[in-house]
Amino acid sequence: MDQDLLRELEKRLDEIWEDHVLRPLETLVSIPTVSARSQGLVEGAQAVADLARAVGFQPRIVEVEGSAPFVLGAMDAGASQTLLLYNHFDVQPEDPVDLWDSPPFSLTQREGKLYGRGVADDKGHIVARLAAVRIAQDVLGKLPLNIRLLMEGEEEVGSIHMAQLLDTYEEDVRADFCLWESGSVGPDGRPELYMGMKGILTLELVARGPQRDLHSSVGVIVPNPLWRLVQFLAALKDEQEKIQIPGFYDAVVPPTEADRSAVQGIPLEIVQTWHQEWGVATFLTGVDGHAAILRLLFEPTININGIHGGYGGPGSKTVLPATATAKLDIRLVPNQDLKDIFRKFVAFRDQLGFRDIEVRAVSGQEGPARTPLDDPFVQLVAQTAGVVYQKPPILYPMVAGSGPMAYVRNRLKVPVVGCGVGYHGSRAHAPNENIRIQDLRLGILHVAYLLATFSS
Amino acid sequence: MDQDLLRELEKRLDEIWEDHVLRPLETLVSIPTVSARSQGLVEGAQAVADLARAVGFQPRIVEVEGSAPFVLGAMDAGASQTLLLYNHFDVQPEDPVDLWDSPPFSLTQREGKLYGRGVADDKGHIVARLAAVRIAQDVLGKLPLNIRLLMEGEEEVGSIHMAQLLDTYEEDVRADFCLWESGSVGPDGRPELYMGMKGILTLELVARGPQRDLHSSVGVIVPNPLWRLVQFLAALKDEQEKIQIPGFYDAVVPPTEADRSAVQGIPLEIVQTWHQEWGVATFLTGVDGHAAILRLLFEPTININGIHGGYGGPGSKTVLPATATAKLDIRLVPNQDLKDIFRKFVAFRDQLGFRDIEVRAVSGQEGPARTPLDDPFVQLVAQTAGVVYQKPPILYPMVAGSGPMAYVRNRLKVPVVGCGVGYHGSRAHAPNENIRIQDLRLGILHVAYLLATFSS
Question: Residue A455 has what pLDDT?
């Protein structure tokens, strides 16, 4: 029964491949929807809405004040349950263009792969999910689920209007489950599913000293904003990498036994890959193996994105600068709260006596979110992946990165699972972004099979 | 007698003013001797040599391997004692040019001032001293002192070949006393003399993390070079501003009673000026008044000139950078030793476990140097200043800045005193560098009178 259904879906996929997979992907990739430059987003939303309409959705393009267009869509099958598909049609800038082997905004096929900005993140997934709905509908006649679409054009700039969107349109995206934007296949061909994302709080610190740059000889009596930054930042962590902000860990939910067990199931090769690809022999505090994975997924931390102040050219310049800035991102885990952590950060600054350092949150804050491994939806996505990929999926209870998952997970109170058509070599955000055709096929079949399984 | 001699010198100065003060200064300023760009130094050395020859010196233009030309000069009066005049004919770059009210390399007179790059630092002093020798000679018939010249073209880039120069030409600059390159008149019209300079050790620190910039989400396990820099730098000082490097203060000679008394004699207005001009309400550890002056002159410290690494543009970028750099200058006081402090710095780095941070000395290191206040030469320069300026001089046992004084003071073992024609508004190194004509006159008369006093 399983295999028969799968074969039917596969056959139908072959039939629609050119017109409803490759052509639509070609169309989407050709539109440079670079949200960092506010470019192509109206055209991109229109193209996504057109594709959704062709599959049978009733799409709407909506905006909230100051936002890029969102595409919402509904396909009512009269079913009792509703699946939400979250994706985004904006992409990262294509720079540096000269490192691309084919034009970034022109879908190019070579050696079994499809190249172009956004094929992995996230246009390939938009096309894959619409194609999955199409073939499931074609094969089953009628979908066993209502489906809703939530597709945004600002994911790559921090989903800065998602909260406002939900204030107005929450009813339109209400659902019982959600498939998250994307996912990948690991080096061993096993599909990787993830059920949570860290949150991110990005901060800018500005330290001010004298009213203009001074000759450095006065540094023995004049406060130097670089020293101030250094002293404050150093106080944030101890030698064991523990954040020293009082209450920072209060809301942290430690990994469960099931989480630890899932982490143990992640092939250790990934850690070797990290060592090699990053050129890092020893991780912080010497952690390695599954303990390193566990820490990567479940520990919050503070990272310094940049420090800039004073002279940075060749040789030396004896200057005491007037200002210095640092940019930080704080990675949060469930159930840390963005506002609470921001408050505690500022309170710690005050307590240490660094009120002269201005702290401001930079836009694009995202809360942490996760769905427990024992949620039935997680189990269904995993089980169907096993059938389609013919290999057991690798379950990531969390990933280290951040995204707007908390808006859906915590506000709509639905289980959220990420899966998709990328792979370990997809180069999302980088030149020569690509997906493998075989992964695209399997990704479509997985979602189609998942949809069909709701009826069985 | 004093006043008669002074009047004679003054009269002679009036006579030579146009041809042997203004014209030579015009010539020197017109040559853009910008050592940072290796510009105009050959021409500048030639012009200085020509001026010296016109006064009666036998000048030589010499070089050591890789150096700009030096001008050495001797005027043998058959006297038993020899005075060395140290000056430099190179200048700081003129940038930003658009902030100048007249062309930087064209001597311009307005409102009793002379404008142009180098008039205060240090071409005005070259002209003033040669003019002083000229009028003293004219008035006395024969100088009571032999005079030697040591004029370099690399002071503004750290006198990087001075040690090599002395290895070869020490005999040619041997003397019994030395007048240092420059000096100023304070807001109250009192001449400021200084008898010492701090040393400077400039360092560049490079921290290396992963082999390429990584996504910041891995910051919970991957060492971040910015964190490494922050942690190492923070360990260098405690909250009381004490440097934590073992042995850092071992060789420090504390100020004597005479030093403290001289500092007490410095008018406190200077400290108010610092507060206002720098826009700094509170100095480090709350020090103020004469205690702030004492600390500025006699305490060594470490200053951060710059830190650069990671993202510094608008908004945020979630990056963990591959490298980060910091530039430091360490200000040394007598008798700290450059090599000893460098060794201790590196040893402290190793002891703290930061061998991953590369430390290298940047060229232009200068040792600390000072001449005691009770040296007879100091007293003579001060006494003659009192006569010429008709106000008691302000004695700075040390200044906070650095220069090549140690080469002369410590190698030639001669007393060194700085005095000169600048003033508190001279804007050395900045646009609209200028001196006041009245200060130029008094500065010439002071040196001429000092020369004459050796015979009385």
Answer: 61
pLDDT at B447 over 60: yes
- CB-nearest to A222 from B283, B304, B401 is B283
- The stretch B291-306 carries a mean pLDDT of 98
Put simply, the answer to whether B226 touches A306 (Cβ < 8 Å) is yes
In A153-300, DSSP assigns E strands to 177-180, 184-185, 191-194, 196-208, 214-215
Is B214 in Cβ contact with A278 (below 8 Å)?
yes
**Out of B224, B300, B401, closest to residue A304 by CB:** B224
**DSSP string of B154-220?**
-GGGT-TTHHHHHHHHHHHH--SEEEES--EE-TTS-EEEE-EEEEEEEEEEEEE-SSS-EEGGGGG
User: Is residue B366, in this structure, part of any structural domain at all?
Assistant: no
Q: Do A188 and A206 share a domain, yes or no?
A: no
A309 and A424 fall within a common domain: no
* CATH number reported for the structural domain that contains residue A42 in this entry: 3.40.630.10
pLDDT tens readout for residues A23-41 = 999 999 999 999 989 999 9
The shortest CB-CB distance from A226 to any of B282, B301, B307 is to: B307
Query: Exposure string (b/e) for B426-443, b if CB count within 10 Å is 16 or more?
Result: bbbeebbbbbbbebbbbb
Domain count, chain A: 2
Q: Is B329 near chain A, with CB under 8 Å?
A: yes
Q: Is the dihedral of CA A32, A37, A43, A46 positive or negative?
A: positive
Indicate the pairing of strand B434-436 with strand B113-115.
antiparallel
How does the average pLDDT of chain A come out, rounded?
A: 96
Q: Report which of A360, A397, A36 is spatially closest to residue A198, judged by C-alpha positions.
A: A397
Rounded to an integer, the average pLDDT of A332-337 is 98
CB contact (8 A) between residue A283 and residue B309: no
Q: How many separate helices (H) and strands (E) can be counted in chain A?
A: 13, 21
Q: How far is CA B164 from the centre of its chain?
A: 19
Q: Which of residues 237-296 of A touch B (CB under 8 A)?
A: 237, 241, 274, 278-280, 282-284, 287, 292, 295-296
Residue A366 lies in a domain: no
- No. of helices (H) and no. of strands (E), chain B: 13, 21
Residue A445 clears pLDDT 60, i.e. is over it: yes
SS (H, E, C) B317-332: CCEECCEEEEEEEEEE
Residues of A in contact with B209 (CB under 8 A): 280
CB pairs under 8 A between A and B: 235
Domain hosting B327: range is 199-361
The residue out of B323, B339, B361 marking a domain boundary is B361
Position B409, amino acid: R
- A357-380 pLDDT, tens digit per residue, is 999 999 779 999 999 999 999 999
Contacts of B313 (CB under 8 A, 6+ apart): none
B191, B207: one domain: no
Residues of A with Cβ-Cβ distance to B362 under 8 angstroms:
315-316
C-alpha B79/C-alpha B136 separation (Å) is 15
Mark yes or no for CB contact B317/A324 under 8 Å.
no
pTM: 0.92
Quick one: B164 and B228 in the same domain?
no
Q: Is the pLDDT of residue B315 over 90?
A: no
Q: Residue type for B382, please? A: A
Write down the ipTM of this complex: 0.92
Domain-ending residue, one of A361, A391, A422: A361
pLDDT in tens, B93-126: 998 899 999 999 999 999 999 999 999 999 999 9
What values do phi and psi take at A194, rounded to 5? -135, 145
- What single DSSP character describes residue B97? G
- Whether residues A70 and A128 share a domain: the answer is yes
Statement to judge: residues A210 and A287 lie in one domain:
yes
CB contact under 8 A, A306 and B317: yes
Is residue B121 domain-shared with residue B263, that is, in the same domain? no
> Does B386 lie in the same domain as B312?
no
- Identify the CATH number of the domain in which residue B235 sits: 3.30.70.360
